[in-house]
Structures are given as structure tokens and as C-alpha cells.
Amino acid sequence: MTQALPTQLCDxxxxxxxxxxxxxxxxxxxxxxxxPAATHVCEYCFGPLEVGYNYDEIRRxxxxxxxxxxxxxxxxxxxxxxxxxxxPIDVGTGMTPLVKSNRLARRLGLxxxxxxxxxxxxxxxxxxxxxxxxxxxRAKELGFTTVSCASTGNLANSTAAIAxxxxxxxxxxxxxxxxxxxxxxTLIYDPTLMAVEGNYDQVNRLCCEVxxxxxxxxxxxxxxxxxxxxxxxxxxxxxxxxxxxLPDHIVAPLASGSLYTKIYKGFExxxxxxxxxxxxxxxxxxxxxxxxxxxxxxxxxxDFVIPVKPNTIAKSIAIGNPADGIYALEIxxxxxxxxxxxxxxxxxxxxxxxxxxxxxxxxTAGGTTIAVLKKLVEAGKIDPDETTVVYITGNxxxxxxxxxxxxxxxxxxxxxxxxxxxxxxxxxxLERLEWKQVLV
Amino acid sequence: MTVKVLIPTxxxxxxxxxxxxxxxxxxxxxxxxxxETNCPGIKARLxxxxxxxxxxxxxxxxxxxxxxxxxVETILNDKDEVSIVPAVAGGLITVNR
Lengths: 440, 97
Prior knowledge:
The complex is a heterodimer of chains A (440) and B (97).
Chain A: H1 7-10, E1 22-27, E2 33-34, E3 49-53, H2 55-61, H3 64-68, E4 98-100, H4 103-108, E5 113-117, H5 128-141, E6 146-150, H6 154-166, E7 169-175, H7 180-187, E8 192-196, H8 200-214, E9 217-218, H9 224-229, H10 233-241, E10 249-253, H11 258-272, E11 282-288, H12 293-299, H13 325-335, E12 339-342, H14 344-358, H15 364-378, E13 388-392, H16 400-403, H17 417-429, H18 432-435
Parallel strand pairs in A: 5-13, 6-7, 6-9, 7-8, 10-11, 10-13, 11-12
Antiparallel strand pairs in A: 1-2, 1-3, 4-5
Chain B: E1 2-6, E2 20-24, H1 28-38, H2 42-46, E3 57-61, E4 64-65, E5 81-86
Parallel strand pairs in B: 1-5
Antiparallel strand pairs in B: 1-2, 3-4, 3-5
């Protein structure tokens, strides 16, 4: 925080005379300011860059009514997002259901539990569609015709799909030994798909070099300051869907820590511009035990995060070196929240619990979040009366391997009533997991 | 002991726009000092006020993060490749599959 501001860069900020809702990138570490271009790290201290807004201008433009009259997508919050255009790429992303939980809440002993269900976010069934919609809109504004990303799943699907919709050339980088389903779920949108012979770490380093040499817009590299802002809409929507109120407590998955910190920023911004009454909200985070550097730092009372090598089934949140980890830690501490981790077995139980009680099939990240929610309740760390929102960020159909073998098999029967009756009788006496061993 | 060092774009102004430089050094610490001798000013950008590599900077020796080795005391061997990579907030660097 001791770094002097590089004033020569501030001088390059646009001076168009027009009042913008955002006009700069700001280093989260040292405060250095940069023009809002395609860049993501501070040249001085390598800290992450974040979009700087003109909140007076936003306050002037936005009311609850203008938002409610907006499109049924994240773009109803356009003034809070880092784009200039009046015609952003709108594929219906966002405004996913906020479900008042009945059966899960009862099972856990909670009275006011809500589930923010991004397992049905459009178009590719994860929260990534929010960040990619923002990143690709900004990419077009900055003049990119080719967009790209390094990914192992949800992000690849989302970037390829939304680029297809927007007519942008797309090149996605994946490790060469990725599961077939994830490859197919990207290829269908017809991007150029580079399967890199190497691990994910190597894929990313290659992408950093490509971003530098080819001038492409990498959503999660040089467009990251814009991309990450899309997650704020998970905060805005919850406020609006709760009837313009903040919840008391949120539980969200922690990978890099970005989503968690952006939900916090979303809440803060709505308070700042007067759209919602201020209130203390506790922020709790969920990690898989096989990759829990932030949870470990929280439990040990540290203010820094020591990287780990991930080993968990919750691959979409298995980030061993979470660069937003310190910011997530800070938020959990100052809001009186908790950061917990759960085992792979608990994650599978979490996925099954949500499916069996609420009819929502989430991926492993969601299983982690539900399992941590349960753990926090059991430890008395969630008040049964408080309004708690749990964030489900992805769809279980994408990680079927994780629960294969834990949900039983269908009962195969002959096409006659007798066989059915016999099987029905057996099904009442068998545990589901035993079914697969039984030939009826 | 000569090692190849990959320099990230924001620091190439210190290396005459070269993306790779050859440097001497038996450890990462020695390498940082040697880089400073060859490219004056670069160390202040790589390290914080206490002389430790900045927390948003990842240093790899042959693809292994020095945090998993011996940090700045990590021993370097002839022909090792050292990469200096700014961390992408969002934890891109060590996501496992």
C-alpha cells in the first residue's frame, strides 16, 4: 500500500467530456490507476486490477424502478457493469430463481433458507455465463474479434457458446486429457479447440504468452477486470429477489475467492447508491478439504494464504493458489462469517441432499457449498431464524462422474405386472445402493 | 551456473524488450540479485520492501512453483528455466484438473 501512484498513467485516462459510469482500472494493492483497456495486472506491484466506477453518475441514472423495468437478465444492472454499449450481448443470462427452501431447510432446522440456483443459468448452466457475457461485451467494445480462455469445463462451455452467439472467433485452450463430455460440450459451439499436451498450469502459462503475442481477448486473463465484475450480479439479484433487502448470511463456494468478493462488492454498491438499506451480512465460504488453502488460513487465523496442490473431486473449485484468497479471508473475518471445508464423501452427500430435498442437481461445487452449510448449521454457526442464502453455481449434469456409483441403478424388470410387483416389493426392503447388485 | 529466465511483458522494459534473458545464480535469491545487476531497477519491481518476491508474482523453476520448493533459497542448476509469471487474480496458475 506504500506504492506511489504512477501519475503518467493517470494522465492517459480518457477525457472525453462525457460522464461515464466507469473510467479506469485501479490496482487493488497499491491504488495505481490505468485506462480501462485490456490489461489485468498492475505494472508496478503485479496486484490485480479492478474497474473503478463513478457512483455519483450511477446514482443519478438508477432507481429500483429503472432496474425493474429493465431486461430479465443481468443487463438490468448495466450501469453497474463495465460496458459502455446500450446493446450488450444478452443471451438471457442471469435472473435465475431464488428458491425459498422448504424441505432442505426443514432437514437442517433452518427457517429462512434461500437457494440462488445458477445451475439453471443460461445458456450453459453455470454462473460463468454471467462473467463471460460481460467479458465478451467489453471485448467487442475494445475491438477484439477473437476471444479465448483457458479452461477445464464451465468457462470453456460458456465462452464458446456466447462467442458463437455474438459472432466472435473463439479459441479455447484445454489440457489434452480432459473428459470427453467437457470436450464435446465445448466443440458443439464450433470454436477452435486447442488440446494442450500438458497440465492446466502449463495451459495457462501458454495462454498468457498467446494473449501477449496474438492480441486476443482472453476472458480470464487480459479481460479479467471486466469479466470478474459479472459475478456482482449474483449479489444484486438476491437483493432484488428478496424484495430489495439484504440477507443476514450468505454461503458461497470459494475457488479463487473472486465470486465471493464480488457478491460482497455487489451488496456494498447497492447500499452505496441507496438502492437498499444497509445491514450487516455475514459471509461464509465453502471449500473442498482436498483443496482448502483459504479455509486453512481462516482456521489458523492467518492473513495470508499458503498455496496447496489440489486433490479433490470438486475440480471446478480446485484452485491451489487462489489469488483473491486474501480478500476473501478479509471479508469472512470482518463480517463475522466462517470458511469451512468438507471431504469428498461429504460433497457427494451434499449433492444428493440438495437433489433429494429440493429437486436441484448441482455439480461438485454446489455439493461442497451444501455440505458446508450443513456443517455450519450443526456447529451452531448459522442462526435458524436468519435469512440465509446459499449459492449454487453449476449444474450436476456436467460432473456426472462424481456421483456415478453413489446413486444406485434402475431396477431392470420384465415387461409384466408380476415382475413389477416383485421389484416394487424388493425396492421397499433394499437400500438404493444395493439395487445394482440385485437381479430382480 | 547459467539459467534461462522468462520475463513477463510488464518487465521487459528493463530487459531491452527481451522476453528471455540468460542469468547467473546458484539460488533464486542470487538470481534476483544478478538480474538487478544486469537490468537495474528490476528487483524493486519483483520484490517488496522486505526483499521478498511480491505476493502476486509466481516464480517457477522448470514449471514448479518455488513455494513448493525452498522459496528464494531454491537451488538452481545449470540449464534450469526460471519463469516469472504475474498471478492472475482468480487463481489461474495452479488449478488442478
